[in-house]
TrEMBL record:
The keyword DNA-binding applies. PANTHER family: HTH-TYPE TRANSCRIPTIONAL REGULATOR TRER, MANNOSYL-D-GLYCERATE TRANSPORT/METABOLISM SYSTEM REPRESSOR MNGR-RELATED. It comes from Clostridium gasigenes. It holds the Pfam family GntR. One of its GO terms (biological process) is negative regulation of DNA-templated transcription. The keyword Repressor applies. GO terms for molecular function: DNA binding; DNA-binding transcription factor activity. InterPro entries: Bact_HTH_transcr_reg, Chorismate_lyase_/UTRA_dom_sf, TreR, Tscrpt_reg_HTH_GntR, UTRA, WH-like_DNA-bd_sf, WH_DNA-bd_sf. Residues 2-70 form the HTH gntR-type domain. This is Trehalose operon repressor. Keywords: DNA-binding, Repressor, Transcription, Transcription regulation.
């Protein structure tokens, strides 16, 4: 059986999803919720904290808890798509800000992920992605320099994949992905509009060319209130 605070969390979430509590509505006060569910203040606060961490409400000191817009952008897990392709399809106003672009010999952990020799270089690219004026994705890319010899800030602002496929004539074939939820870091808070979110969704991708060469490792960090990670599965 779920803990009481999880049951309350699920009950309030159901009311949000079914429109009983709508966007910008103020939730009942902690005192009212305590009476409604016959629980302690600590239990109510645990439920509200999870709702906030998962992007369903915003708690404002002295004012209460307000329902956020839960319409999230579908982010495909199984496909190999660029940020530009996703936002173009959604018809959203988006912007890419290149925070760092440098050709380096990577630290050992990145070198190991990309299966590189000690002398191999990579392009380190840090980009923030804004949707409707809010910075909600931090992308940290490491692209093997022997496959992509030249990169510019302009290319990274537009679409790295378009450049690789259309200009360099390489074929991007597939990717392996890992998805985790982690505590936010100081780097996340520096680059993203994190509001009061304490968790972030991290998608690590290993991307391969059609000759099975591993050419890119990406760590993509997403604010939790803006995305639903979707996949299509077929039973074999």
């Amino acid at each position: 059986m779920d803990s009481k605070y999880l049951s309350i969390y699920n009950n309030i979430l159901s009311k949000i999803e079914n429109g009983i509590y709508q966007v910008n509505d103020k939730l009942p006060s902690e005192n009212i919720l305590m009476k409604e569910y016959s629980v302690s203040r600590d239990t109510i606060r645990k439920s509200l904290n999870i709702l906030e961490q998962n992007g369903y409400i915003q708690k404002t000191k002295g004012k209460g808890s307000f329902v956020l817009d839960i319409n999230k952008f579908n982010f495909p897990v199984s496909g190999v798509v660029s940020f530009k392709e996703i936002t173009d399809k959604l018809g959203k106003c988006s912007e890419t800000i290149v925070e760092l672009l440098d050709c380096i010999i990577p630290r050992k952990s990145i070198s190991n992920k990309l299966e590189l020799a000690p002398e191999d270089k990579v392009w380190e690219i840090i980009r923030t992605r804004a949707i409707d004026g809010e910075k909600v994705i931090l992308d940290k890319d490491y692209v093997v320099e022997k496959f992509v010899e030249n990169l510019s800030e302009d290319i990274c602002k537009k679409s790295l994949y378009e450049y690789v496929e259309n200009d360099l004539g390489l074929k991007i074939a597939y990717a392996k992905k890992e998805i985790t939820v982690q505590m936010t870091t100081e780097e996340d808070k520096k680059y993203l509009d994190m509001r009061s979110f304490e968790m972030i969704v991290v998608v690590k991708s290993y991307t391969y060319l059609d000759d099975t060469s591993l050419f890119q490792y990406t760590e993509s960090r997403h604010r939790p209130d803006k995305f639903v990670f979707v996949d299509f599965a077929r039973r074999h």
